[in-house]
Amino acid sequence: MNIIKKLRIEKKISQQKLAELCCVHQTAVSQWENGRTVPDRNSLTLLSQVFGVSVEVLLGLEKPKDENLIPGFERISAEIAEEKLVGVEFFALTVNDGSMAPTLQFDDTVIISRRSEVRSGDIAAVAIGPSDVSVKRVIKKGTSLMLVPENPLFEPMLFSEKEIDSLPVTILGKVIELRRKF
Questions:
Q1: Distance, CA of 119 to CA of 113 (rounded, Å)
Q2: Predicted local distance difference test score (pLDDT) of residue 11
Q3: 57 band by pLDDT with thresholds 50, 70 and 90
Q4: What is the extent of the structural domain holding 26?
Q5: Residue 169: inside a domain, yes or no?
Q6: Cα(131)–Cα(144) distance, integer angstroms
Q7: How many structural domains compose the chain?
Q8: Rounded CA gap, 167 and 172, in Å?
Q9: Which pTM was predicted?
Q10: Cα–Cα distance measured from residue 53 to residue 63, given in angstroms and rounded to the nearest whole number
Q11: Shortest CA distance to 34 belongs to which of 57, 21, 15, 54?
Q12: Is residue 15 part of a domain?
């Protein structure tokens, strides 16, 4: 399967949405995925930011890293994150997309202070449903919760009180430190 299609499906993004994020027509995305054309330099840069991978990965010159695995740490799914984090004061996550760029870059490691509440405006790790953990700026609006990316290519996520309970949406902790490899 084509790497762009594979990454798009993994991120649960439609061809139309990816086209909007890359400022191209949906047919261009279809052609990239079918191997008829190759994205231009600008599109490759945007795809790299959307998917949180290097341009080299998109071109097939490098294999994608196991984006959630930090040496010395185990990979856990969102569905068992709360269970695994019981009694843990701090934990680390590897950033695996470009949604918080420029503040947090792909492959940065963030240290998180485990807590179930954060202040509006804090950057936090948030479990969304059974399979997603996201690092975003948390904005509280009444009983709703908005997760705001810093990268304008990504849309904020707004959750009503009902969605917070039904999905669920759970604050795992506040980002307190950034560790970046050079």
A1: 13
A2: 83
A3: confident
A4: 3-58
A5: yes
A6: 21
A7: 2
A8: 15
A9: 0.62
A10: 10
A11: 15
A12: yes
